[in-house]
Amino acid sequence: MASNFMSVQERRIATLSGHFRGAAAVEEELLQRFPTMAMAPSVFEHVQQAPEDPILGVTVAYNKDPSPLKVNLGVGAYRTEEGKPLVLNVVRRAEQQLVADRSRNKEYQPITGISQFNKLSAKLILGANSPAIAENRVATVQALSGTGALRVGAEFISRHYAKPIIFLPNPTWGNHNKIFPLGGVPQKPYRYYDPKTRGLDYEGMLEDLKAAPDGAVILLHACAHNPTGVDPTEEQWEGIRQVIRSKHQLPFFDCAYQGFASGSLDKDAHAVRLFVADGGECFVAQSYAKNMGLYGERVGALSVVCTNAAVASRVDSQLKLVIRPMYSSPPAHGAAIAATILADGRLFQEWTVELKGMADRIISMRQQLYDALQARGTPGDWTHVLKQIGMFTFTGLNKSQVEFMTRQYHIYMTSDGRISMAGLSSKTVPHLADAIHAAVVGAQRKS
Ligand code: LMR
Fold first, then answer.
1. Which of 13, 105, 169, 433 is spaced 20 to 30 Å from 424 by Cα?
2. Which CATH number fits domain 56-86+357-446: 3.40.50.80, 3.20.190.10, 3.40.50.2000, 3.90.1150.10?
3. Minimum CA distance residue for ligand 1 atom 9
4. Which class does domain 108-343 fall in?
5. Using CA atoms, how far apart are residues 359 and 365, in angstroms rounded to an integer?
6. Does the C-beta of 261 come closer than 6 Å to ligand 1?
7. Containing H/E element for 388?
8. What pTM was estimated for this model as a whole?
9. pLDDT in tens, 366-379
10. Is residue 73 within 6 Å of ligand 1 at its C-beta?
11. Residue 70 annotated to the active site
12. Is residue 250 classed as helix, strand or coil in its secondary structure?
């Protein structure tokens, strides 16, 4: 029976004969024999070109720019003073140990990942003496970094929680807005950042949490809020805890920066531990992308802190049912690196020193940028550069100022005015300060 589709053999013959007769002749013959080839539209013809991701797309644009002046302050990824990605020494040492260990193999991991990694991750965020761990009421699963942990948590909530609605801070990390609805949990915003003070809108936040339904899920950034760099004080955290607990709401912590914000792993875990100490339940998504520099290895964990061990065990069993059809089981290598570091006292100590080194360099970038803006007499109050914490400064620059800085100065950043302080170096601070100065002065002239 004549068919309009070419077999593999026919295609080979057509290709070979093309060498002898020329492509145009072959094309003509093919069109005669297979007329639908010319007309058949793709079944995906209707597919629209998607926009680039608002954060990762900045790197795509940066990579295309041939200018030697270019600086990428878009994605939150640590760079050395030389502007290079950093692999921690302690990570290299752990990796060497793993490679040298001939007893290791490449078998599938359990659905919930490496159990030692899970236990150590829970201990890292909840504290070595956490009663929740001692009472066996924490279900922890390995996840594909923070994003994977959030996504698995979202799907579990949509299947098993009576109030599947989540309140997100405004603004929040752009991916949160997509992860939860796609995971089956509709989202709403709560007030968080006050553009006038470039600080926390504490009153607005409490008002919105009080107005949110009883039992709603509340997403909280454990430390170093992304994108604003604005965190509640310890006293404010206590106020937030009281409101959330009084309304029987369910806190869901996103902890992407433990140790990276202040340089201290314990200090950055304060908010999570405060909520766990009251005996109530919560979710915690952890990422080792920033604090161990394991970005591309996708290492993270999701912990569900429950009120008793029997529930935790049943939650664990259901998390497996979420994970298995999603990606079956997590990758081994990155989590094995993290577990090696977390399990070994000396490596752990070395890690804390390197981590503090990264946090301190970021803090020194804040001071240098602030000083450079002062030296140029840049109009406005720039003390928020010093006050905000963690990886990002939410500069207050608007979209057209950002576009100006990219066009004229080849500085790449997200359009909301967020800059990654970890991408700056002493060499690039003056260039950034020049760009900010010109953008601010230019905007003043226009208005
Ligand atoms: C960021 O906010 O830049 C990082 O968390 C990287 C990412 O995945 O968006």
1. 169
2. 3.90.1150.10
3. 55
4. alpha beta
5. 10
6. no
7. none
8. 0.90
9. 999 999 999 999 99
10. no
11. no
12. strand
